[in-house]
């Protein structure tokens, strides 16, 4: 029997596949669809202190090789998502969940995380250090000093299981510097990667999306090599207690297999879920199981991180 079950921290999941934050996770209705699908979990849309309408439309567009978005953090406010995941955890049949959060300033981030700390929520929290789309707000995780300061402060009061969503890094020195910071903290996971920020897609002579004169986060096929490199770079550098969630360019079983081979314990689907809908989890799970069966692997631990090099 082939199984795609996995664990993150002390939480068990019957399937290692789930949505990526931002896709199918804005409302209770969307989240309930992921809960009812074969996905192993869901992550909520990144919640801020107050609800936000986000950037003007069009702000998300699919193209043949992926997607571009500059949503601008539209969300119903972190309390909406905190209430929903706290409600679901009362049901013993419920999957464990990920609550995605970030403030528009470090002060706001601490205010939110303190509320979550004081709440009855017992699940996982994902602090989003990689939103590329709010005009005037740089991505936190590209500023290593700010990142270290925020994490230092967070772990003075936050004791629930916490991970961080990272942007892609593109230089070996940055992998080294980022990992040296993350290894100082009791993080449960890092999630690699968010979209490749501030790309530009054009149709004829015009940009595809309205915010930021067309600049937006790139997802889909375009980003799989970058995502795999980030998953593997952090798998090689982080202490074993910090697990890796792999996100970026997953649309079939082979893509999920590659993320796990690079070290991912859980694999998230963003653009392809947006394009295909929640039934994608049935297809990708079956494709992944078929690859595992062909290779004689019964669990994802049989091949996780076991990427071969050429000597
Ligand atoms: C948005 C996009 C992101 O990539 C992210 O991490 C958070 C928010 C957005 O534009 O809404």
Task: Describe the fold and architecture.
The protein is of the alpha/beta class. The protein has a single domain (6-54, 73-197, 221-302), classed as Aldolase class I (TIM Barrel), CATH 3.20.20.70. Helices cover 33% and strands 19% of the residues. It is built from 9 helices and 15 strands. The strands form 4 sheets. A 7-stranded parallel β-sheet has the order 3-15-14-9-8-7-6. A 4-stranded antiparallel β-sheet has the order 4-5-13-10. Strand 7 (124-128), helix 4 and strand 8 form a beta-alpha-beta unit. Helix 3 runs parallel beside helix 4, helix 4 (144-157) runs parallel beside helix 5 and helix 5 (172-182) packs across helix 6. The longest helix has 16 residues, at 280-295. The mean pLDDT is 98. It binds 3,4-dihydroxybenzoic acid. 3,4-dihydroxybenzoic acid binds at residues 22, 46, 54, 69-74, 128, 130-133, 194-195, 217. InterPro entries: Aldolase_TIM, DHO_dehydrogenase, DHOD_1A, Dihydroorotate_DH_1, Dihydroorotate_DH_1_2, Dihydroorotate_DH_cat, Dihydroorotate_DH_CS. The active site is at 131 (nucleophile). Residues 5-292 form the Dihydroorotate dehydrogenase catalytic domain. It is found in: Cytoplasm. Its main location: cytoplasm.
